[in-house]
Specification:
Oligomer: homodimer
Helix content of chain A: 40-55%
Largest interface: A-B, 39 and 39 residues
Number of strands of chain A: 5
Order of helices and strands of chain A: HHHHEEEEHEH
Strand order of the largest sheet of chain A: 4-3-5
Radius of gyration of chain A: 17 Å
Amino acid sequence: MSDPNVRLEELVTRLRALGHRLTPQRMAVLQTLALSDSHPSVEQIYERVKRDFPMTSLATVYKTVTLLKEMGEVLELGFSDDSRRYDGSKPYPHPHLVCVRCKEILDPDMPSVSGLSDRLAQTRGYQIVGHRLDFYGICPCCREREA
Amino acid sequence: MSDPNVRLEELVTRLRALGHRLTPQRMAVLQTLALSDSHPSVEQIYERVKRDFPMTSLATVYKTVTLLKEMGEVLELGFSDDSRRYDGSKPYPHPHLVCVRCKEILDPDMPSVSGLSDRLAQTRGYQIVGHRLDFYGICPCCREREA
DNA sequence: GTATCTGCAAATGGTTTGCACGCTA
DNA sequence: TAGCGTGCAAACCATTTGCAGATAC
């Protein structure tokens, strides 16, 4: 994992490079995304941002997250139950380990599957642009609670 | 790929085994799910079903798909753009190859990742209950069209 | 015969949008 | 000062739900 503060600087620089303005609300969203390792939801980002800027609106959080998503600086993880979580630290495809009970999301160390991507490109003629690998399970904490 | 008609029989049997009634509308949904290899959306299932039963409602299709999902007989694939596709042929985790242009979904032959599941169970203490592996790309057809 | 299923229409709820005002650069 | 960004509230829209009538078994 790279330094979260370095990542924050990077996000600020790239926003500015594209001519976007850096408002306090945006800065707070960037901080939450860059400094959190917990793959927050929009609602969670909103709650965190409101601590510093109580009059921030949910719509603004949505707009900022959407902007970052379009810039490719945030990875969106949509799930079957309609929930969406965001990763601003590593905005490129990587495996996730999801607890189906408490919804915690971890980034496990794991061999990459990019070799499989290459194989698909060859055998199917697809130009691969991304992938997603999720493991769903019950975390030790929830297993104990249920025992 | 197993025989779609065998799969259809299987679905019918399992529905009945749980005491559910087999209405014409349900039968048409089962057929669409079992006999299609194209991972249809609810809307697509609805269009197909209406050919045989024009007065079928969208709500009924939703209810039947939800029932099958709860029975574990249909795999739901939700995507970031809010679209959802369903697989009634192989309702267990398996890799998908998705064209980001035309939304076609294929089941590529591919080594399984269950070995990685086992490893996560050991290293992280998770009880793994499922996984998802998707590759996103541009299919040969769409690549040619764009060239 | 009766409990389940269907169709309709209304409700739901996360996300998006339109607009007038405010603030960054 | 020129626009971009914000906050508010309304709009959106796929999906779910409630209910009265229809139907599988």
